[in-house]
Amino acid sequence: MKAQAVNFFDAHPGTADLRREVIDGLSEHPRAIPAKFFYDERGSALFDRICELPEYYQTRTEMKILQRALPELVDLIGDECLLIELGSGASKKVRLLLEQLRPSGYVGVDISKEFLLASTETLARDYPWLEVHAACVDFSSGLEIPHCDPSAHKVAFFPGSSIGNFDPADAIHLMADVGRLVGPGGHLLIGVDLKKPVGVLNAAYNDAAGVTAAFNRNLLHRIRDELGADIDPAAFDHYAFYNPDEGRIEMHLVSRIEQDVHVAGRSFGFAPGEGIHTENSYKYTVEEFAELAGEAGFRQQAVWRDDNDLFSVQLLQFGDAAVVP
Ligand code: AVI
């Protein structure tokens, strides 16, 4: 069978968005820049390396859970669905689903254009029976996705606990958008990282090889290279820790020295130890996540975890009587 061409839809944020959000973020106190800007081609490649690290249990644990859950999952979802993968990246996990679920179509959605194109083209080649679409969008600002047959049973797949990178209120909004996309009876299959001993969490975001530090500093590489700023990534330290009050890992970039950096004609002074908050990664109990999903109109249909309770994969179903914010 001949591979299908990938239908491509491009609405990814460009340099103007980066410039605006960086200037806004550096003008605030405390300073913060959205984590979505980690993911240019280099940042996505660094994230792929993180997924292979011994300290970063999430990716391999989720894979194992999915493998174990598959027979039950196929029974619950049925065949002929339209599978929509949010944050498709390297799309490794979805292969498991494609092979067992045999969906009628696949839509890969990601903010990183080069990665998305490469991964969907590979899927189209490897699964010639599958209709493959690619939508390059920043789904944190709404889910405008073409190619969605209104009558299809839609299953959104959001692996990797990327939901944890949204503040709870934004996570509810995003899931409500997903609910509108999949419609009543539609599904969301989602990976959710669980609360666990602090030592395990801190190690996962402070790996010995320094890949997470390089990933964090990639934001500064982008600001320097794409915005022409005179910022030196080596003048900032990677700082990541679990904040138990908020139930989240926080990542920051902390200035080693007193310095002024110039971005798009604006000057920003840093005192030594002054930081930029770059990412939150929320951790949930299964019960806490049920409540969050419920606020978006989803109910937990099934929850699978590993033997050490590190991670969960949850099948959520969108209901008719949903109260959608
Ligand atoms: C993509 N996301 C779920 C990762 C996380 O664990 O929050 C991003 C990451 N940040 C540092 N390491 C990995």
- Please give the alpha-carbon distance between the first and last residues: 45 Å
Question: What small molecules does the structure contain?
Answer: N,N-dimethyl-L-histidine
Spans where pLDDT lies below 50 across 5 or more residues? 321-325
Number of strands: 14
Main sheet specs: 8 strands, mixed
Identify the overall geometry.
Answer: globular
* Proportion of strand residues: 25-35%
Mean pLDDT: 91
Strand order, largest beta sheet? 1-5-4-3-6-7-14-13
| Cα-atom radius of gyration | 20 Å
Number of helices: 9
Question: What structural class do the secondary elements suggest?
Answer: alpha/beta
The helix content is 25-40%
The secondary-structure element order is EHEHHEHEHEEHEHHEEEEEHEE
Short summary of the structure?
Helix content is 36%, strand content 27%. With 325 residues, it is of the alpha/beta class.
General description of the model:
This protein is of the alpha/beta class and 325 residues long. The protein is 36% helix and 27% strand. The chain is built from 9 helices and 14 strands. The chain has helices at residues 15-27, 41-51, 58-77, 92-101, 113-126, 168-182, 198-204, 211-227, 286-295; strands at 7-11, 31-32, 82-86, 105-110, 131-137, 154-158, 187-193, 236-243, 248-255, 259-263, 266-270, 275-282, 298-305, 311-318. An 8-stranded mixed β-sheet has the order 1-5-4-3-6-7-14-13, with helices on both faces. Strand 6, helix 6 (168-182) and strand 7 (187-193) form a beta-alpha-beta unit. Helix 2 packs antiparallel against helix 8 and helix 3 (58-77) packs parallel to helix 4. It is globular and about 60 Å long. The protein starts with 6 loop residues before the first strand and ends in a 7-residue tail after the last strand. 42% of the residues are buried.
